[in-house]
Amino acid sequence: MPRYRLDIEYDGSAYAGWQRQAGHHSVQAAIEQAAQQFSGETLTLRGAGRTDAGVHATAQVAHLDFEKAWPADTVANALNAHLARAGERVGILSAAAVDNSFDARFSATARHYLYRIVNRRAPLALELHRAWRVPRKLDAEAMHAAAQGLLGRHDFTTFRSAHCQANSPMRTLDRLDVTRSGDVIEVRTSARSFLHNQVRSMVGSLKQVGEGNWSAADLRAALEAKDRTACGQVAPPDGLYLVGVDYPGICSGT
After folding, report:
1. For the chain, which end, N or C, has fewer CB atoms within 10 Å of the first or last residue's CB respectively?
2. What is the C-alpha separation between 190 and 109, in angstroms, rounded?
3. Do domains 3-98 and 110-246 have the same CATH topology?
4. Could you tell me the sign of the dihedral formed by the alpha carbons of 157, 160, 166, 170, in that order?
5. SS3 for 102?
6. In Å, how far are 88, 163, 238 from 14, measured between CA atoms?
7. Which residues of the chain have pLDDT under 50?
């Protein structure tokens, strides 16, 4: 069956998450419906990451298997037309025919996320549902320094949702950088894979450091506790973006 890679962006605030769920509108279901309307086939879309409700993506990757081969541009244009007609807040950035050995989820070698904080007292107007507004002044340099203590391979139970279905809490964190530009603080992180709510949990705990409530040693102690109750506040989904997925020989460059 002809397989196509899709590169996708979406506004997660309009959806109950990536994954298809009974009784809820999801990004996966929206694209599958568009594909069915285009091709007349019942298809299953498989994505690189199962983002939660309210989480956005600028570079989600997924694959679809059609019964019939189509020009890649036709696939992208047809899906976008049906998505637009349905009022979906999803865009297919590109489509490409790929070998059947390509799997959007299991072939991925790294995933990259961005978390955006707007650090100001004024409420959000243009950035509403696009960032986490934190009114208390944050020390981004302290946050970055503390974040380096989470790099490497660890048991991330502290920063794992109680509902996480991963077989193991062990993960290798390759990047966790915190930078500031004006009122905007960006947290960029990379790993082969993440646990459920890991990024939001780490960001919420880094906020404790930025506000001066925790030291770098406190953050490290929370990690070593391997206890969910040691985690700081879980950051809201509004500021989280999936911004890249790497595959063998293909890096997102984030």
Report:
1. N
2. 10
3. yes
4. negative
5. coil
6. 8, 23, 11
7. none
Cα–Cα distance measured from residue 70 to residue 55, given in angstroms and rounded to the nearest whole number: 31
Q: What is the pLDDT of residue 254?
A: 58
pTM over 0.85: yes
| Residue type for position 41 | E
Label the pairing between strands 90-98 and 3-10: antiparallel
52 is catalytic: yes
CATH number of 110-246: 3.30.70.660
Catalytic residue among 7, 52, 238, 246: 52
Count Cβ neighbours within 10 Å for each residue of 58-91 and write b for 16 or more, e otherwise.
Answer: bbbbbbbebeeebebeebbebbbebbeeeebbbb
Q: Is 152 exposed, middle or buried (0-12, 13-18, 19+ CB in 10 A)?
A: exposed
Q: Which segments of the chain are extended strands (E)?
A: 3-10, 46-47, 56-65, 90-98, 110-118, 132-133, 152-155, 170-181, 184-191, 240-246
Give residue for tokens 């299953």: 44
Q: Are strands 110-118 and 132-133 parallel, antiparallel or unpaired?
A: parallel
Q: How far apart are CA 251 and CA 7, in angstroms?
A: 13
Coil, helix or strand at residue 75? helix
Q: Report the CATH architecture of 3-98.
A: 2-Layer Sandwich (3.30)
Give rounded-to-5 percent helix, strand, coil for the chain: 30, 30, 40
What residues does each domain of the chain span?
3-98, 110-246
